[in-house]
Design brief:
8-stranded parallel beta barrel, 2 domains, alpha/beta, about 425 residues, 4-stranded antiparallel beta sheet, about 15% helix
């Protein structure tokens, strides 16, 4: 069966095809709608993407600020605080219907935070297609932990290798944390075959030899500086000289007082310190191999009042040192105290090895401390706080200070999580 088309229809169609008078205009008009929609969608998408990036940056900043708050005050209203911080960080006025939520999950190793933010941005071109706004959504996470388990803290804000271990040095920080306030790119350095083992490590700047740094809770760079826990400790007043250039070669017990021009212990010396404060006015504490220095409830203060030079310390290998700090009074918890006026970078060497034990804080805020010692027991308490700290040989430091009168090194470690 064939279909017959009337002749007048065939003629009309033929005339339409041959007609060139403005026949393209309707087609262009129809195509323009799709073209403008596509271009406009790209423009609106770009605006929405930029807005989302700004929201993400604001939420990341909010997460870091909130993490510090909740770790210090676990009961804080996290969503309310998050909204306030987000408002302070996010300044775009073209985003509407902003909603911020947050939750905190305390754990044994710290507090985990989860945050989200949503909003809408109006469209310009996509309205032609009936789309008046684009929904935006971002998420962020953070982790924070406050710990009183710090046992090593370098205070220098810019030094290269402010904490360092080189060669074949092995450093075991048993159950405690290492903190480095330097902002240098290699603030912490573990070179060669050296290794540092700690509960956690926090560095303001960066770390070199990260593969040689072993931690349970992590190596964190880009941290905030740690406050000096003994910043308000001061040297009690003293005067005169009770001993001048004291030297020992045999067994002797000495008492607190002012020791001008140093204390020197040679091989065979066995010196016991009675409890109290020992002021070294110039000179050096020199403990040579084969000598023994012991004392409970003592603080050695390195200073200068009448001497020509500042007091320093040198404890050599195979020396036996067993000193513990007082648990009360102005020097509570401090077994070694360096005058803050000592020139930055002055060397103090505590390299007695496995027979060297200090119970309490070695606190020399301007000193360049060289340390090798400790016996690795779980009953010891040693804090090492200096301008810079270099580990030599093998060291084993433990932080079990509940009965030693020390002040905790208690920073808040914070990092973003994704």
């Amino acid at each position: 069966m064939s279909l017959s088309v009337p002749k007048r229809w065939r003629c009309a169609f033929s005339d339409l095809v041959r007609d060139r008078r403005a026949g393209v205009a309707p087609l262009v008009a129809l195509s323009a709608i799709a073209l403008v929609g596509a271009v406009g969608a790209g423009v609106d998408y770009g605006r929405a993407n930029a807005a989302r990036t700004a929201m993400q940056s604001a939420l990341d900043s909010t997460a870091l600020m909130l993490a510090k708050d909740v770790e210090q005050s676990p009961g804080s209203q996290v969503t309310q605080s998050a909204a306030s911080y987000f408002d302070a960080n996010f300044t775009r006025s073209d985003i509407s219907n902003i909603q911020v939520s947050a939750s905190a999950s305390p754990g044994s190793s710290g507090t985990s935070l989860s945050l989200s933010a949503t909003g809408t941005i109006g469209t310009v071109f996509m309205q032609l297609l009936g789309i008046s706004s684009v929904n935006l959504s971002v998420t962020a996470g953070a982790w924070a932990a406050t710990s009183g388990l710090g046992c090593v803290l370098s205070l220098d804000p810019t030094a290269n290798s402010a904490v360092g271990a080189q060669g074949s040095t092995t450093v075991n920080l048993n159950g405690c944390n290492l903190y480095d306030n330097s902002s240098d790119a290699t603030a912490l350095s573990a070179g060669g075959s050296a290794s540092i083992t700690a509960l956690s490590v926090g560095v303001v700047g960066g770390a070199s030899g990260a593969s040689n740094i072993i931690t349970q809770d992590g190596l964190f760079t880009g941290q905030q500086p740690i406050g000096d826990p003994y910043v308000d400790a001061s040297i009690p007043s003293f005067s005169g000289c009770d001993q001048n250039n004291f030297k020992a070669k045999s067994t002797v017990t000495i008492s607190p007082g002012v020791y001008c021009n140093g204390i020197s212990l040679n091989a065979g010396a066995n010196v016991t310190l009675n409890p109290g404060i020992y002021y070294l006015d110039g000179g050096s504490l020199s403990v040579n191999g084969g000598a023994t220095l012991t004392g409970s409830g003592v603080t050695l203060v390195f200073t200068k009042q009448t001497a020509a030079s500042w007091a320093t310390a040198t404890v050599n290998g195979n020396a036996t040192v067993n000193l513990t700090a007082p648990t009360d009074g102005p020097m509570s918890g401090i077994v070694i105290f360096g005058d803050r006026r000592i020139p930055v970078g002055t060397t103090f060497k505590f390299n007695g090895g496995s027979t060297q034990n200090f119970g309490g804080a070695i606190y020399i805020p301007t000193g360049a401390i060289s340390f090798s010692g400790g016996n690795g027991t779980n009953t010891g308490c040693t804090q090492i706080i200096g301008d810079t700290i270099t580990f030599t040989g093998n060291s084993s430091v433990t932080i079990n200070c509940t009965s030693f009168g020390t002040r905790p090194i208690s920073p808040t470690l914070i990092r973003l999580t994704y």
